[in-house]
Prior knowledge:
single chain, four-stranded antiparallel sheet, 9 strands, globular
Amino acid sequence: MPVLLVANGPASDAFISNPKDFAPPAGLLSGTDGFKAAYQGFAIEDGKQSYTVALWDSMDHATKAIQDPKFAPIVAKMGEAFSGEAARHAIDVSADTTAALTAPVTAILIFTLKAGQSADSLLTHVGELAKNLDGGVAGAKSPSLYGKSATDANKVLLITGWESAEAHQAIVKGGSQSAVFGKIQEAADFTVAHTTLRKGEA
């Protein structure tokens, strides 16, 4: 199953100043078995949090590539893109990723399970929210992407494309999703960031 790798953390000054310096050599990724696309963006909220998203045919493809010695310099360089520790997640995706990753704005929500709560229930509620957003909510780009992180069983990600951050905020303020989001908040804490993802040259 296709997998989406998501890394986020505080961006280094060098990365903020010139993200292109951190791009892999032209043609390297495009010639890698299982690689589909990579995107990068900074949080609109502060411009200092970096989000890198990569789509692969499967987790096995991604793992094999990352362990290939020829990628060691790239992995090291990407480590320099963050000024602190980066969180890394992987979610299985069966839906088309185009709308969520190429919209004018992408909202990335990361839910962290509270003690004593059910991870399966949290995933169900996030799935319900995703379905609602895909049902014609103004400003939302369907389909949303969501899933349990393969690197942290206590986290669930929801990624949705929007016309703008304001469009997303209007839905939140409007309260149309308050019932399902209330269930999510009972089960998890969360962070949300908006970014405009740029597709990298492979």
